[in-house]
Amino acid sequence: MSKTRSLFMAATASIALAQTATAQVSDDTLVVGLSADITTFEPAAISSRDNANIVRHIFETLFSIEGDGSVVPDLATNLAISDDGLAYTYTIEEGRTCHDGEALTAEDVAYSFNRAKDPANAFTGNTPGFVFSSVGFVDAVAIDDLNVQINIAAPNPIAFGLLAEVYIHCKDSYEAMTLEQAAASPVGSGSYKLASWTPGSEVVLEKVADPGTFQNIIYRIIPEASTRSAELMAGNVDIITNVAPDQIDAINASGTAEVQAVQGTRRMYVGFNLSEPFAAMPGGDAIQNPDVRRALQYAVDVPTICEQLLNFPCVRATGIVNPPNANQSLTPYPYDPAMAEKLLDEAGWPRLEDGNRFTIRFQAGKGRYLNDENVVLAIAQYLSDVGINIELDVMEWGSVYVPLIRERNVGPLFFLGSGGALWSPLYDMTDLAKVDSGTNYTHWSDPRWFDRWADISAAKTPEEQRVIIDEMLQVFYDDGPWLHMYFQPDFYGVSNRLNWTARPDEKVYLFNATLN
Amino acid sequence: MWTFIVRRLLQSVIVILGVTLISFISLQMGGDPTYLFVSERASEEEIQMIREALGFDKPLHIQYLTYLWNIAHGDFGNSLSYRQPAMGIVLGALPATIELTIFSMVIAITLAIPFGVFAALYRGRALDGSIMTMAMFGQSIPSFWLGIMMILFFGLYLGWFPISGQVPFLMPLFQGDFATAFGNLPSSLYHLVLPAVAVGFYSLSRNSRLVRSSMLEVLGQDYVRTARSKGISERAVVVNHALRNAWLPVVTMIGLEFGFLLGGVVVIETVFSWPGIGRLVFNAINQRDIPVVQASVIVLSVIFIALNLIVDLIYVRIDPRVKL
Predict the structure, then answer these.
(1) Is the ipTM of this complex over 0.90?
(2) What is the value of pTM for the model shown?
(3) Which single residue of A205, A459, B46, B76 could bond A465 by disulfide (Cβ 3.0 to 4.6 Å)?
(4) Option in B41, B50, B275 nearest A124 (CB)
(5) Which residues of B touch A404 (CB under 8 A)?
(6) Contacts of A222 in chain B (CB under 8 A)
(7) In order along chain A (516 residues), what is the average pLDDT of each group of 10 residues?
(8) β-pair type (A514-515, A482-495)
(9) A59: exposed, middle or buried (C-beta count within 10 Å: 0-12, 13-18, 19+)?
């Protein structure tokens, strides 16, 4: 009997101990539940948004772009751009240090840039792969202790914003580390340092300087949406990303947390691949005609897709640019299937005996965007309703669809999203900077768009530039290569104990989060 | 017996080579993996530079032979995503999966044997019907759905168990940090309950049915009838005569199932945020992180082969009729 009682006591004590270990979050700690795993802390290898959201707390940048698109100084206090637009000279704040105590100077800034470009390191992250490719980065040179000059190959109207994405760190610490060490043990320059990292499980950051309200930030990797929601409602997590639309009501009804829904900056569209090989495919010839493309704009009920499948009343896009910077004279295409049918008839594609006008393949990946598979099915149905015989091809995202996309070999119709920004319309438009741009998956080549980039570069005032932008956006609206859909909404679950506002650009920055 | 072991180990090398070749070819079938590691705005020159840096520019057979050569020298390559040694990442995730697998097998076996035995002993009666109904549900319910339901009921509604996450026990144990390992043990077990039940419920159901049918077959044998006629107690007949013989197919199944679970817990690891090898492989396949996939395949193959070998050796031990 006494042995049984001892066992019972031991079991009870174990459970009590274990329950202590899973007690709710303390007041100096903020816990975030992320859907995707973190793979590296190497500043030049960061490529995913979740990874960048953590690393931004560890590393400073020269300037920061706020959620509303405004720009604020970060490490730099001043920027001077040369008359030819090829040299950006930043003055950095005096007295800044890295986490190991080393003074952060202009030489460190230059090193951060040049190290990211060094072919010997073979970095593939956002800095070398996207920023440097986009701005034509040449090199960075320290002029003195506080001034650093970034040289680019050609004038670029969005270089400033892109260069603000480069993470800055100190030279000595990174020269002393191997690449493997740098990937796991960052020596940062920001408000928080890495306290611990358990791959696949959690990342713990510890505050070392302002700004930052919480002493600790814990990022827990919780891939399953239902589990993230349950952790939030149980009070074990303060913020969760990527809330599934079907769980919004449950979270809002829980009394412990609420969902913040924001219209994001990611532009979702159905692309028309206009390349020659695709023009030879069934339906590929039909979409070469801008009248057909315009007709299809009327065929899809985007607001209903948003309400029914995304649980968000999004506004249909009028083009490639996010709403604050869009051509304000344009109104979204209405859902008008009769108009779609009329325009298709007029374009020379009447319904045949079988009720179809033409057959076309529609390709999409699944599992990348919010409820993407169902959205694609809905679009296919709407197009079928006006007589387009859709051959739907929904495939695995990472290993099948992405290579097709990157080879610009997808279509003739394809579903895709493209990350956007609020700080400049040109950022959004540079997806189509050149006919052969890697992001021009449609192979669209209308000179009324592509020839105008020279005019933008030559424009002397922002007002003059704006006129050209609006004219380009009008062309894109009328005859463009996208069937305009929506700006993807983002859903964040936020604990009632927390005061934090989600941004529209998918950046989860926690410096200003406070307890209610 | 030693000849048998050596022969099996030699066969294992061929099996592992075959597995690495198949997984290598499968990963290459999706197209050029370089595109997953470059920006969509990268120029052709930049893409080619990265292709060369990652070694994807070489012919496939050269890539594969280089990989084998490196393995022979203990180099499994660096993860393309983590930028760390691939084998280190895989071995870092393995203990979590072993914990989950062992615990779920313990639950499955310790319950399956009495369930199967009692179902056989009370064949056609209410107890048998109840156990077989449970077994039918267990084999019909998808484990991810069961996991989510358990999270919602036992984790969120009742608050009895943690909703997700893992507290490591084996990892610090393997590292020689016994204080941390045993300090973690209560919390580790506490976190294991829900995922282990979700994983083990299918095995529990299948093994219950297996034990039942095996017991029914054995209980009808002459030697059992002889034992009973000699006046041996029913308990001794069941435990010493029937169960010992009914145990043979179950041992085979358990051994295979352990290997199967090691590679098959990916869904439950995702549902319960369990940082194990299943989730690691799943992510690595999506990211075409070939070194991690290959290292995982090798580790899982070795474990599977070792388990089969152990099962064969146990078989000899418990069935004297079997000779190696």
Answers:
(1) no
(2) 0.83
(3) A459
(4) B50
(5) 31
(6) 164, 273
(7) 46 45 74 89 88 94 88 91 92 92 94 92 82 88 95 88 92 92 92 92 93 93 92 95 91 95 94 95 94 96 95 92 93 96 95 94 91 95 96 86 85 93 90 85 95 89 93 95 96 95 92 91
(8) unpaired
(9) buried
